[in-house]
């Protein structure tokens, strides 16, 4: 269970950092992080990091797919954590 919690923590940190990096690139006009990658990171356990990144960096907050999708992935992440906790 400890490895699983470390994995979730790392995924959320990585997703948060990627959201910030993408925001910085958007401001500079640089190479962006693909939206697919941001959603994939959130789906793989980084939903809370993605949501926090949206709030802290004020990034992707006008994209309906992110405004709806990221909270849904947070809920899915929570459901998975609960199920894993129950069956471990």
Automatic annotation (TrEMBL):
InterPro entries per the UniProt record, alphabetical: Cold_shock_CspA, DUF1294
Residue spans crossing the bilayer: 38-54, 66-87
Taxonomic superkingdom: Bacteria
Keywords, alphabetical: Membrane, Transmembrane, Transmembrane helix
Protein name according to UniProt: DUF1294 domain-containing protein
């Amino acid at each position: 269970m400890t490895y699983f919690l470390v994995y979730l923590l790392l995924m959320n940190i990585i997703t948060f950092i990627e959201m910030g990096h993408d925001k910085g690139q958007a401001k500079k006009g640089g190479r962006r992080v693909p939206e697919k990658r941001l959603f994939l990171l959130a789906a793989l356990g980084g939903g809370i990091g993605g949501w926090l990144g949206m709030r802290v960096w004020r990034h992707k907050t006008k994209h309906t797919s992110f405004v709806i999708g990221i909270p849904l992935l947070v809920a899915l992440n929570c459901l998975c954590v609960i199920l894993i906790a129950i069956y471990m």
